[in-house]
């Protein structure tokens, strides 16, 4: 005891339907940089939120300097000396650096309610200087780049004398120079005895910076080792090392003619020369980490994300898609990742949602064809096995799986040829997942083209005929199902920046 | 459990109608003049302008928007007719009515364009600005004069009555016209694809856009439609008073219309509301005004009561949303 700044013992956290953290233990030594990695959904975010008091654990204990403590609120965490620099910075851009650093802990003039800006500016400048930033702290934060703003966040942590600073993907929005400066700062913090929990998607950074690294998977602790004992392959195997079971009822289709060809799709800063071809009668999987540009690629094809260049060919013919309306006209369907925000009109019934993407099919002249809507709706509820008290039931009352089926039903009603499925099984239960897979099999059997983005590797491997891997807005490579390299390890390697 | 939710649902739907009936019964007892045929016709007459404007407001509210320029738009349309009559001596009703309708639609269309193509954050700001512009414009086009002397073909809509005989004042044409308009709105909202698109755009704009519906066009149509009914209301106003009075642009037409919609079940968060609910809402407001006048309440009291009713209506809207949310959670758990 007493050897650790922060120690978690057997922490479990459940959310409705999922166990986000299972029996998780973690030890952080004073003055060490501990790396934390894991796939999307491995439980890193939940772990951070437990440490910072945003969530409280259902089971397990937390020790600060060997003393058991209950961290129930963010201010408990702050008092315990735990600070976090989130990926999304908490900066009020209109206010000065000083104001941001001293937010909620202003220095007052002696015996008065007035703020002592002179003292605050002086102190803010000192702290920033100690982080290697000689900046004018009186200027609004909007004047500075991401690198400096991150330092402002770190300065906040330094000011409350944090013993542990958690950094969640700190380099994801930084340039190369800023990353170097950040690493320097992190090392100097370490020398001052501050511990750092460094969460990153970039292996090379972990090797450069960390003393030890912890790997998480499916909400569990997999391994913690000194960085010297680790290499790329070991880390990746630890991250993905689960076995495939047959929850994927894959039926291989017959690959037909070219359905969709993308050439050099570009969107400054987001997508770089995206080119690929998808065929009728196949499922093309797109793998990659969160932020790899997969959703943006889909939205760009669908006319819902701005592009600076590139061509789209459907059945060999070049088409112009400027809006979702154009995309639907070209018989493309997009099942969005955000079901509630972008897929459904939650306040409306199943019947209305089902016809929304193809209203003209359900009108006779000016009027809605109520009979056709009802017949079609009943059929869809039957075919897709939507569990509902009735066709007019408001969709917000359905379960996630049934909601997803309604969205799929909406697109089936458009008779689309090309189906873009963005995380089609996110947040739905296992039974409904299999039903969604079966719908995909049906589509492929009918000669449709299905392209699926998924962050669940087993799903990608289980259902795709071919997989392309994206990273940082670029395509890293492509693997065919019948290739012997069609493994989680290879895909992960590519997703983390390696060669296939 | 389910039956309780159903009872609540029915109460929620019939609530406004119930309020209307209770209010009428109370007023029947407190004032002997309330439940007379001529007073009822009077109430219908008073409902026509607000109801007409509220129909457009309803459609805007369904898309989760708001149109604060409605009253000023109606008065501007009246003033445009006044200008053509006064400055150019035009008495041809086709030209006058055409000009009014064109003005109303154009203003509505601009509101829609400001929202969709100029990306103004919320129509509250743009239509509030537009209201002031239109107030000024209404004064400008008639040089701040009140114009009278409209031909009978123009004033007919706002002043004529059906079955007028002996002491019976007759059924106001303006109210009948409003009812016909409401039937049209009912058909639009419930029987057409555009109607579905309007509800869906209000329920979830992004999902609707990503379903391949041109939501910009839907919104522009909705605000243009609001402008169109404002023009009709403007013509009714001219008919009722016989004059085009530009300074009446500051009358609380907009708040009355919003109140009618909200009392009738529409919501600021969009996606819901019916035209028949709005009819009841408009009637409730007219009855309160009428009843207060019969009870000899001065205008100060009237203003305060209407103000409180509006706040209460919004409160009811918020409470209703929270209750529905709760019911959904219970049902969905």
TrEMBL record, chain A:
Query: According to its record, what are the GO cellular component terms?
Result: plasma membrane
- From the Swiss-Prot or TrEMBL record, state where the protein is found: Cell membrane
Annotated PANTHER family: CARBOHYDRATE TRANSPORT ATP-BINDING PROTEIN MG119-RELATED (PTHR43790), D-ALLOSE IMPORT ATP-BINDING PROTEIN ALSA-RELATED (PTHR43790:SF3)
- Record has Cell membrane as a keyword: yes
Q: Which UniProt keywords apply?
A: ATP-binding, Cell membrane, Membrane, Nucleotide-binding, Repeat, Sugar transport, Translocase, Transport
Q: Which Pfam families match?
A: ABC_tran (PF00005)
Signal sequence coordinates: none
Q: Where are the transmembrane segments?
A: none
What residue stretches are annotated with the ABC transporter domain?
6-243, 254-497
Domain of life the protein comes from: Bacteria
Q: Name one GO molecular function term.
A: ATP binding
The protein here is known as Ribose transport system ATP-binding protein
Mode of membrane association: Peripheral membrane protein
* Main subcellular location: membrane
Automatic annotation (TrEMBL), chain B:
Give compartment(s). Cell membrane
GO molecular function: any one? Answer: transmembrane transporter activity
Q: Which CDD domains match?
A: TM_PBP1_transp_AraH_like
Query: Where are the bilayer-spanning segments?
Result: 17-37, 58-82, 94-116, 128-148, 168-189, 218-238, 301-319
Lineage top rank: taxon: Bacteria
Q: Which UniProt keywords apply?
A: Cell inner membrane, Cell membrane, Membrane, Transmembrane, Transmembrane helix, Transport
What broad class describes the main subcellular location of this protein?
membrane
Task: List, alphabetically, the GO terms of the cellular component aspect.
Answer: plasma membrane
Nucleotide-binding found in the keyword field: no
Determine if Ribonucleoprotein is one of this entry's keywords: no
Q: How does it sit in the membrane?
A: Multi-pass membrane protein
What PANTHER family has UniProt attached to this entry? ABC TRANSPORTER PERMEASE PROTEIN YPHD-RELATED, ABC TRANSPORTER PERMEASE PROTEIN YPHD-RELATED-RELATED
Instruction: Give the protein's recorded name.
Output: Monosaccharide ABC transporter membrane protein, CUT2 family
């Amino acid at each position: 005891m007493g050897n650790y700044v922060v120690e978690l013992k057997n922490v479990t956290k459940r959310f409705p339907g999922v166990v986000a953290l299972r029996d998780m233990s973690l030890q952080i030594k004073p003055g060490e940089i501990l790396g934390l990695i894991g796939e999307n959904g491995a439980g890193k975010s939940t772990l951070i939120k437990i440490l910072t008091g945003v969530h409280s654990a259902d089971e397990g204990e937390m020790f600060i300097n060997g003393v058991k403590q209950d961290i129930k609120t963010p201010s408990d965490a702050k008092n315990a000396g735990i600070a976090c620099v989130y990926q999304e910075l908490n900066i009020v851009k209109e206010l000065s650096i000083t104001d941001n650093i001293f937010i909620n802990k202003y220095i007052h003039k002696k015996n008065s309610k007035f703020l002592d800006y002179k003292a605050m500016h002086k102190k803010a400048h000192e702290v920033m200087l100690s982080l290697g930033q000689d900046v004018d702290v009186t200027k609004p934060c909007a004047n500075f780049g991401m690198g400096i703003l991150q330092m402002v966040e770190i300065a906040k942590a330094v000011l409350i004398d944090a013993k542990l600073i958690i950094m969640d993907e700190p380099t994801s929005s930084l340039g190369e120079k800023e990353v170097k400066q950040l690493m320097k700062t992190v090392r100097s913090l370490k020398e001052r005895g501050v511990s750092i929990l460094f969460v990153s998607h970039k292996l090379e950074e972990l090797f450069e910076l960390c003393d030890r690294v912890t790997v998480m998977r499916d909400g569990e602790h997999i391994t913690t080792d000194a960085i010297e004992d680790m290499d790329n392959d070991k880390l990746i195997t630890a991250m993905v090392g689960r076995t495939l079971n047959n929850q994927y009822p894959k039926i291989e289709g017959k690959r037909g003619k070219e359905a969709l060809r993308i050439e050099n799709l570009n969107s400054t800063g987001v997508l770089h020369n995206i080119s690929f071809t998808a065929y009728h009668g196949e499922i093309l999987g797109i793998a990659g980490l969160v932020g790899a540009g997969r959703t943006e690629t889909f939205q760009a094809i669908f006319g819902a994300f701005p592009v600076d260049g590139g061509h789209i060919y459907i059945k060999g013919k070049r088409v112009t898609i400027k809006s979702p309306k154009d995309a639907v006209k070209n018989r493309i369907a997009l099942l969005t990742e955000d079901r509630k925000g972008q897929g459904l009109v939650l306040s409306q019934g199943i019947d209305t949602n089902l016809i929304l993407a193809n209203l003209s099919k359900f009108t006779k002249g000016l009027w809605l064809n109520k009979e056709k809507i009802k017949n079609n709706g009943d059929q869809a509820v039957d075919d897709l096995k939507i569990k509902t008290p009735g066709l007019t039931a408001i969709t917000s009352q359905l379960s996630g799986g049934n909601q997803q089926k309604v969205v799929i039903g909406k697109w089936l009603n458009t008779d689309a040829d090309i189906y873009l499925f963005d995380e089609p099984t996110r947040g739905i239960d296992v039974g409904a997942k299999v039903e969604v897979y079966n719908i995909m099999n049906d589509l492929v059997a009918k000669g449709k083209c299905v392209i699926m983005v998924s962050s669940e590797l087993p799903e990608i491997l289980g259902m795709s005929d071919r997989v392309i891997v994206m990273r940082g807005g670029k395509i890293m490579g492509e693997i065919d199902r019948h290739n012997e390299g069609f493994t989680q390890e290879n895909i992960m390697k590519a997703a983390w920046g390696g060669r296939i | 459990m389910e039956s309780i939710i159903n009872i609540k649902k029915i109460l929620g739907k019939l609530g406004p109608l119930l309020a209307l009936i209770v209010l009428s019964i109370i007023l029947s007892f407190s004032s002997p003049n309330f439940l007379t045929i001529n007073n009822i016709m009077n109430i219908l007459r008073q409902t026509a302008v607000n109801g007409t404007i509220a129909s457009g407001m309803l459609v805007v509210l369904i898309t989760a928007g708001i149109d604060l320029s409605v009253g000023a738009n109606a008065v501007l349309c009246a003033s445009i007719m006044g200008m053509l009559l006064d400055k150019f001596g035009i008495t041809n009703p086709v030209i006058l009515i055409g000009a009014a309708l064109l003005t109303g639609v154009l203003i509505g269309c601009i509101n829609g364009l400001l929202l969709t193509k100029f990306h103004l954050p919320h129509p509250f700001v743009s239509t509030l600005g537009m209201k002031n512009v239109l107030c000024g414009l209404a004064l400008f086009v008639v040089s701040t004069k009140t114009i009278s002397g409209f031909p009978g073909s123009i004033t007919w809509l706002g002043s004529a009555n059906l079955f007028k005989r002996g002491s019976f004042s007759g059924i106001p044409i303006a109210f009948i016209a409003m009812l016909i308009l409401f039937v049209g709105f009912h058909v639009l909202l419930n029987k057409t694809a555009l109607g579905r698109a309007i509800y869906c755009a209000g329920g979830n704009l992004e999902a609707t856009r990503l379903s391949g519906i041109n939501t910009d066009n839907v919104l522009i149509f909705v605000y243009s439609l609001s402008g169109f009914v404002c023009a009709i209301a403007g013509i009714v106003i001219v008919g009722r008073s016989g004059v085009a009075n530009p300074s009446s642009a500051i009358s609380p037409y907009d708040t009355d219309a919003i109140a009618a919609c909200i009392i009738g079940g529409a919501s600021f968060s969009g996606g819901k509301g019916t035209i028949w609910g709005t009819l009841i809402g408009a009637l409730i407001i007219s009855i309160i005004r009428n009843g207060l006048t019969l009870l000899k309440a001065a205008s100060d009291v009237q203003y305060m009561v209407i103000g409180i009713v509006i706040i209460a209506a919004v409160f009811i809207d918020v409470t209703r949303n929270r209750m529905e949310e709760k019911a959904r959670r219970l049902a969905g758990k």
